[in-house]
Design goal:
The complex is a heterodimer of chains A (about 400) and B (about 150). With about 400 residues, chain A is an alpha+beta fold. Helices cover about 30% and strands about 20% of the residues of chain A. The mean pLDDT of chain A is about 95. Chain B folds into 2 domains: about 50 residues, no CATH class; about 80 residues, OB fold (Dihydrolipoamide Acetyltransferase, E2P). The chains are: A alpha+beta (about 400), B mainly beta (about 150).
């Protein structure tokens, strides 16, 4: 640790010691309002850690979460608030960045116990997949919405179409990603799609949302909340659960990734061209060290792109690599989205993926892998900024 | 240069494009209403830029000049949309959106619809030409740039 502390790095300096989530609901089905969901998830994470919620001294979130830090601090009666960070950007691009910001707050000495969370009640506040009720638009949306490029499926399909064109990726590769999520959800009682299996025939017969996305290539929309508790490495062993250490994190995107509308120079990309190398550099690890992957599925195509950009296969090999048997726990080549993820567990804007990576490192997943010392989370393909996170056990420090 | 409403490719009722409160894209939208496609080009380093910004991303000269370009390009990507994400599109059926690259303007890209049948085969790399679609009776009035196979 001496060498690590001398470097500007998060490696091994912070650990997740508690995780918690509410029940996950179909959108509009939560009996609780959004803020109450946030409180429930945070209290569950504190309970899991065995920590007094009043000892939280920081909050971190992303995607303009409405449950703001000062209201949470007042509601929970925490002794003092020392860190409150919001990651810019939409979608799930911030699901790992929020963890990175919390970890950085702890390493920098700004705070000692930071909760990272995401709460979403789409029944209360509206869905992302419907856009009725807007009269005029300006900025990026003005160049898209009048042409019927309205909601996320239409905003991302052309990027995936171009990627499939450039690299010869077939529909079956996308299908395997959907099948893996649904496969894992069948043994996860938390999953909204638990008890609703998917097979290749059902996928093929499902309606197009926007080509090349079938219904099952698209994430769900849900109500719920999820939270994790982070503390400094020095205290990580004082809690009741096995710590999951932050091995590395990275945030951002490459040159002019944010050039709208659809004008990023590297268009057929999930935006990890600079962010994936940053992550591996901080962690001192490479793709072959990773035992299990949680990759944000807004759409399956983005997962294929993000996995390739993280070095798990070359884009030209996507069709060979992305098969159901390769992607499932316990012994696939690269078990993917082992809780069911955004497609089949819950669309908690990707934060459910962070909790699942912690479970894998602990050894408590409902689809436990055997190689669980290093788990990766990939947040928000095709948006900017994106982010990623490597978590690991004490054995790899 | 017909001032009359041409039938839109998509049903009316979708969000209407307007310039931002700071007016950044106002010349673009005004140009479309006059059958002119305007794209920013830096008068100092000649870099093309779209969407617009107050600054040239290459040389940092402010206020890149709006320059008229021929509405011609190549299909860079495309999608066939089936699910209606807006009430105005319910019962409408599939439609095509294309991302068109303009080689004569530094390769900037624009999103539009591909006119013609929704089930036509679309080929990445195919040449397309622009068609101005006017909505003079809308409040506020506006124009779009659509694309068709030559």
């Amino acid at each position: 640790m001496t060498r690590a502390s001398a470097e500007r790095s998060l490696r091994g300096r912070v650990a997740v010691v508690g995780i918690g989530e509410t029940n996950y609901y179909r959108h509009g089905a939560s009996p609780d309002p959004e803020f109450k969901l946030a409180l429930k998830a945070i209290l569950a994470a504190c309970e899991d850690a065995g920590i007094d919620p009043r000892d939280i001294d920081g909050f971190a979130s992303y995607s303009d979460d409405r449950s703001e830090a000062s209201r949470l601090a007042a509601a929970l009666g925490i002794h003092r608030l020392r860190s409150a960070t919001m990651q810019w950007g939409g979608g799930g691009g911030g699901c790992c960045a929020a963890v990175a910001n919390a970890a950085a707050s702890i390493v920098a000495g700004l705070a000692d116990c930071v909760v990272v969370f995401r709460a979403l009640a789409q029944g209360q506040y509206g869905r992302f997949g419907q856009t009725t009720g807007i009269d005029t638009v300006s900025g990026e949306r003005a160049y898209l919405m009048p042409y019927g490029v309205l909601a996320p499926p239409q905003r991302f399909a052309m990027r995936v179409q171009r990627y499939m064109h450039e690299h010869g990726v077939r529909q079956e590769a996308l299908r395997a990603i959907a099948l893996a999520s649904y496969h894992h959800a069948q043994s996860n009682p938390r999953a909204v799609m638990h008890g609703k299996p998917l097979d290749a025939a059902k996928y093929d017969a499902s309606r197009w949302i926007v080509e090349p996305f079938h219904l099952y290539d698209c994430c769900m929309e849900n109500d719920g909340a999820a939270a994790v508790v982070l503390v400094a490495e020095e205290r990580a062993r004082d809690f009741r659960r096995k710590p999951a250490y932050v091995l590395g994190a990275a945030v951002g995107s490459g040159c002019r990734a944010g050039a709208v509308p659809h004008n990023s120079p590297l268009y057929a990309s999930a935006s990890f061209d600079t962010v994936a190398p940053d992550l591996y550099r901080m962690a001192g690890l490479g793709p072959s060290d990773v035992g299990v992957v949680q990759a944000y599925e807004n759409f399956t195509g983005g997962v294929a792109m993000a996995l390739a950009e993280h070095g798990f296969f070359k884009p030209e090999d996507a069709n060979d690599f992305l098969t159901l048997e390769n992607l499932i726990a316990p012994s696939g080549l690269l078990p993917l989205n082992t809780s069911g993820g955004n497609l089949a567990e819950c669309y908690m804007h990707g934060f459910e993926l962070v909790l699942e990576a912690v479970r894998q490192v602990r050894g408590t997943s409902t689809n436990q892998v055997s190689r669980n010392d290093v788990a990766i989370v990939i947040g928000g393909p095709m948006v900017t900024p994106v982010s990623n996170l490597l978590l690991g056990s004490e054995a790899v420090l | 240069m017909s001032g009359k409403a041409s039938a839109g490719y998509l049903p009316s009722g979708l969000p209407i494009p307007v310039a931002e409160p700071d007016g950044l894209s106002a010349p673009y939208w005004a140009g479309l209403r006059q059958n002119r496609l305007l794209v920013q080009r830096c008068s100092r380093c000649r870099t093309w830029q779209f969407g617009p910004e107050w600054l040239c991303h290459r040389c940092h000269a402010f206020d890149p000049e709006w320059t008229e370009v021929e509405p011609q390009g190549r299909i860079f990507s495309w999608e066939r949309v089936w699910h209606p994400s807006h009430a105005a599109l319910r019962q409408h059926g599939p439609y095509l959106a294309v991302l068109v690259e303009l080689p004569q303007a530094g390769g900037v890209r624009m999103v539009g619809n591909l006119l013609g049948g929704a089930m036509q085969m679309v080929t990445i790399g195919a040449k397309v030409e622009g068609v101005f679609e006017h909505h003079p009776d809308s409040d506020p009035p506006y124009s779009l740039l659509q694309w068709r196979m030559p």
